[in-house]
Amino acid sequence: MTVNADSSTSIATSWRDLPAAQQPDYPDLEALRAVTTDLATYPPLVFAGECDQLRAQVGAVARGEAFLLQGGDCAEAFDQVSADQIRAKLKTLLQMSAVLTYAAAVPVVKVGRIAGQYSKPRSKPTETRDGVTLPSYRGDSVNGPEFTAEARVPDPERLRRMYHASASTLNLVRGFTTGGYADLRQVHAWNQDFVRTSASGQRYEALAREIDNALNFMKACGADPAEFHSVEFYASHEALLLDYEAALTRVDSRSGALYDVSGHMVWIGERTRQLDGAHIAFAANIRNPIGVKLGPTTSPDEALALIDRLDPEREPGRLTFITRMGADKIRDRLPALVERVTASGAQVAWVCDPMHGNTFEAASGHKTRRFDDVLDEVKGFFEVHKGLGTHPGGIHVELTGDDVTECVGGGDEIFVHDLHQRYETACDPRLNRSQSLDLAFLVAEMYRG
Ligand code: PEP
Ligand code: CO
Predict the structure, then answer these.
(1) Ligand 1: residue whose CA is nearest its atom 10
(2) Residue 214 resides in a domain
(3) Is ligand 1 within 6 A of the CB of residue 356?
């Protein structure tokens, strides 16, 4: 991997002249330039070879041979970069993955919304409280959540903090996933603090016992493969702030190709996927596996045009379509997209985001989601793919390892009047640990279906 001083200039010509939606309005462009110049000299957070490895694994998802589990916070926050919180998130994802691997008997590709998910696209540029209007909070990478004029001014120094927060998070993730903690023999340990208090924890415990038996049996037979002792875990985030992503885009010395080394996989959001916009032009230039969110207004022609731009070689694993239609629309909107894409010969990975089409405001003013709607969208996703003979490739969820009360429903039911108890999200409502595990069990049943 070479840090090529020219890389940001050469990329610049391809997207800087195009309209870029959702970018911060920095008052001091000199300060921005100073930060991005520094960022361009910082070490890569991930390596090109790791991105290639993930692309190959997403290729298996596209071919129907593996399942993608992508999850984490809606928005990470600088003050939540702590060992406890990162471990809790990882534990939840590892538990979900164990459930899916064992109960659905499918290899699971594990990708966190983690170590870089600090930026948020917003539907409204301003927020009004008690007659006072201020710019919206756009994530810790841009401005502060406090409702004051000072906090809401975009500060480019926050891009530097995003880099350092991502680096320390990723360092811990790498430690946890390769240092023995993710060893399959730890399936019980991930559940320890959880098992007595929740129905999903108990259900998980029963499954963990079965996994243990299977491992003991294999060991007795003389099989103890290295795959059981560590886990491949990848980092992803929305490539929203192009100044940051471009500063972290480097030329790979092996291949001469460009990689965005801020994360293994990046995705383009529903609000920034304009075909003639800067985000798609930026994504077209990098070799990372790319995701694109597709909302209910996406036409089949748009989906095909996105494939032409982002995956002209039709390479399985290069492009993942993350559909987020809403439970009431998925059965209606998804079939035409899948049919046309399949007929075109492209092999994309289809992943279901059952969160972003199902958000509503509770009477208390909390933004929330119903667990039943989340589940119903995933069900619709499976129905459509089964009906068309295509592969329901994965799920993309917003979750946390903490016992928050942000989404309503689930096995340990959370009611609308509970929402205030632990409502801690920096942006959208997340599934808590118990809801996440419930979802994994239900998805495993659908997959086996
Ligand atoms: C998100 O993933 O947090 C998000 C904003 O999603 P979307 O672009 O699909 O609205
Ligand atoms: Co979100």
Answers:
(1) 270
(2) no
(3) yes
Nearby residues for ligand 2 (ion, Cβ within 5 Å): 74, 428
| Neighbouring-strand partners of residue 320 | 291, 349
Nearest ligand for residue 270 CA: 1
Give the percent of the chain with pLDDT over 70. Answer: 97
Q: Which residues contact 385 (CB under 8 A, 6 or more apart)?
A: 338, 350, 391, 392
**Strands 258-260 and 249-251: what pairing?**
antiparallel
- Give the structural domain span for 390: 5-182+230-448
Cα 270 to middle of ligand 1, angstroms: 6
Residue 231 tokens read as 């886990």
Q: Is 227 exposed, middle or buried (0-12, 13-18, 19+ CB in 10 A)?
A: exposed
Does residue 160 have a known ligand-binding role? no
pLDDT value at position 59? Answer: 98
Ligand 1 pocket mutation pick from 237, 325, 428, 431 by most atoms within 8 angstroms of CB: 428
Q: Which of 92-96, 388-392, 408-412, 437-441 shows the lowest per-residue confidence on average (mean pLDDT)? A: 408-412
Going by the DSSP 8-state scheme, the letter that residue 420 receives in this structure is T
What's the domain count of the chain?
1
Please, which pLDDT band fits residue 7 given cuts at 50, 70 and 90? very low
pLDDT class of 195 with cuts at 50, 70, 90: low
3-class secondary-structure state, position 86:
helix
pTM comes to 0.96
Longest dimension (CA), the chain: 71
Look up the CATH number of the domain holding residue 350: 3.20.20.70
121 lines ligand 1 (CB under 6 A): yes
Q: Give the CA angle between residues 440, 80, 190 to the nearest 5°.
A: 35
Of 234, 233, 227, residue with least CA distance to 185? 227
Q: Is 293 in the pocket of ligand 1 (CB under 6 A)?
A: yes
Ligand 1, residues 141, 237, 293, 330: which to mutate, most atoms within 8 A of Cβ? 293
Task: Tell me if 210 is assigned to some domain.
Answer: no
Atom 3 of ligand 1, residue of closest alpha carbon:
74
User: Which residue minimizes the CA distance to atom 4 of ligand 1?
Assistant: 269
pLDDT in tens, 63-98: 999 999 999 999 999 999 999 999 999 999 999 999
Residue 206 belongs to some domain of the structure: no
